[in-house]
Design goal:
- The protein has helices at residues 6-38, 41-45, 59-65, 68-99, 110-122, 127-136, 143-147, 154-165, 169-177, 182-193, 195-211, 214-219, 227-236, 247-250, 255-290.
- By secondary structure, the protein is mostly helical.
- The chain folds into 2 domains: 2-45; 59-290, MetI-like (MetI-like fold).
- It starts with 5 loop residues before the first helix and ends with a helix.
- 27% of the residues are buried.
Amino acid sequence: MYYKSRPYRLFYAINIVILSLVSILCLIPLIHVLALSFSSGLAVETNQVSLWPIGFNLDSYSRTFADGAFLEALTNSVFRVVLGVSLGMLVTILTAYPLSKMDGGGLKGGKLIAWYFVFTMLFNGGLIPNYILIQKLHLMDSIWALVLPGALSIYNMILMLNFFRTIPKELEEASLIDGAGHLTTLFRIYIPVSLPSIATIALFVTVGSWNAWFDGLIYMHKENWPLSTLLQTMISAPDLSQKSVSESEIANLTERSLRAAKIFIGALPILLVYPFLQRFFVKGIVVGAVKG
């Protein structure tokens, strides 16, 4: 077999080495930020910290979790992700299912509708019209301003559509013969066998919702910012005042260590969620992308 040949084994070994090096390069910045968050203020300010904490302490984290604005932003982000993923997956599935029937006359005008969706991937109204639309709909400073505009991702919908098209039509026909309607067929047949694609798209939506910061900046008041918006403004315009810092904290607490702790906490939820969905990721991408 070809995978037992010497050239293939060499190619495989080189791939492992290259991907391992790339993985290490991706992990180094995160490890450095984690080390900064656990280090003393003196070590951080004198640039002594590399990949291991110096002067280990938890003052940055205790200070971060005592910050009401940070906790509020964290809560806002969690609520946004839960609502965004729930609504996004529902809309994506309900759009992809009928469009998957456009072949063979199952949905009249289905191809035209599909091309309409593709057109919106290439052209959009732009920032100012979107802002005016959100304002006219009275969604400003509302969680819906963060969720509704991106509820349906056309890219995700196409992945879901193509996955649905790989499901044997005999399953649907058997369901319809037994008296089930389209909604019953969708939720009892299609969704259970589409878990890899659903998990993949859910991961996309989760990461996108968690990391999005610009919409929070323009649509929300400061007290209702999601965490990514708060972190972005904190990094671009840091507050160097360190108000109400006790004398005992001064040696262990600096603006850089505080920012490092907040950045790591902001990245932690995605780091925890990804391993549970990773096993579906490759299968969902490949199957959802190859169908013509």
